[in-house]
Amino acid sequence: MIIKVVVTLKNGVLDPQGKAIQQTLNGMNFNNVDDVRQGKFFEINVNENDETQAKLQVEDMCKKLLANLVIEDYKIL
Amino acid sequence: MKSSVIIFPGSNCDRDMDVALKKFGFKNQMIWHNDNSIPKSDLIVLPGGFSYGDYLRCGSIASKSKIIKSVIDFANSGGLVLGICNGFQILTETGLLPGILQQNKYLNFICKNVFVKVKDKKNKFFKDIKKEILELHIAHNEGNYFCSNDEMKSLEDNNQIAVTYCNDHGDEGDENNPNGAIKNIAGIFNSKKNVLGMMPHPERMIDKYLSGEDGSLFFENLLRNLN
Q1: A11-29 confidence digits (pLDDT tens)
Q2: Helix, strand, coil fractions of chain B, as percent rounded to 5
């Protein structure tokens, strides 16, 4: 079963890459872009048939490795 | 005094560190990341570089490597651990040091000499060091130190800030902050001050003809304090 995870910077944490992307978009005349936050996307193939169980395991993975909770939040989709 | 330098795939300052430690009298040994244990040592060094290609986050994969449990046990039993650059990043990812090193504020890889102010001398790394301001070298893309407000309060309350970026007169300030690190932090200790992580490379400043010798002061002093 494939579980999808998105890891993003917490609100308030400076995201210089997101800022550079936003400025580039503005420079390309996408003038209505006010903010861009960049994140990471994971597809994790867990050998488990029970979705709840699989998500519990992935949550543990997020806390221990995939996200650094000092600056990042994770969302299991 | 015996020291051990851990080599991860992608470490690239391991041999510079080996040269520096031996030059100042350490009996140094190189330890591979996939080993199970570290021979008896007075000092363990996590060197600079790009361990595991900086995949996921700098230092995150190394912080789960096979050898790291021995490093954590050694640190928790009071052993001296020094993490330089990528080594500092690894130490924050293991949780031995609080906070994290984020990408530099202006997205540039910085490679230059900087001045740092020694903020605390009640520890084995800087005790009796004569200078207040050291000229050291930095080379990193992720050196922008960040931590939560609670962690910062505890760093300040326990004098755990080791070195901060400044100019040659010791003035801290945004113009002397190369990477956007919170409060100009270039290096910190754990609460017991037996673990030091810092972005500047003392091992690159040990030869008066090539660079400068403020790194020599650091290693001479460290050896003296360990004896």
Answers
A1: 988 888 899 899 999 999 9
A2: 30, 30, 45
Give me the domain span that covers residue A22.
Answer: 2-76
Q: Residue A31 belongs to a domain with what CATH number?
A: 3.30.1280.10
The interface predicted TM-score of the complex, written ipTM, equals: 0.79
| Per-residue pLDDT tens digits for B59-89 | 999 999 999 999 999 999 999 999 999 999 9
Q: Which tokens belong to B11?
A: 């470490």
Phi then psi dihedrals of residue B198, to 5 deg: -150, 150
Query: Confidence class of residue B227 from pLDDT cuts 50, 70 and 90?
Result: confident
- Model pLDDT, residue A20: 87
CB atoms within 10 A of CB A14: 14
Total structural domains within chain A? 1
- Domains along chain B with CATH numbers: 2-226 (3.40.50.880)
> CB neighbours of A15 closer than 8 A, spacing ≥ 6?
A9, A36, A37, A38
Q: Is B148 on the interface with A (CB under 8 A)?
A: yes
Q: Is B151 a catalytic residue?
A: no
Q: How far apart are CA B94 and CA B44, in angstroms?
A: 15
Catalytic, B111? Answer: no
Report the first-to-last Cα separation within chain A, whole angstroms.
Answer: 13
The DSSP letter of residue A64 is I
Taking an 8 Å cut-off on Cβ atoms, the answer to whether B180 and A70 are in contact is: no
Task: State pLDDT tens for residues B134-152.
Answer: 999 999 999 999 999 999 9
The Cα of A70 is separated from the nearest Cα of chain B by a number of Å equal to: 6
Q: Give the CA angle between residues A1, A62, B9 to the nearest 5°.
A: 100
Specify the 3-state DSSP secondary structure of A73.
strand
Distance between CA atoms of B164 and B134, rounded to whole angstroms? 10
Structure tokens of B223?
Answer: 């050896």
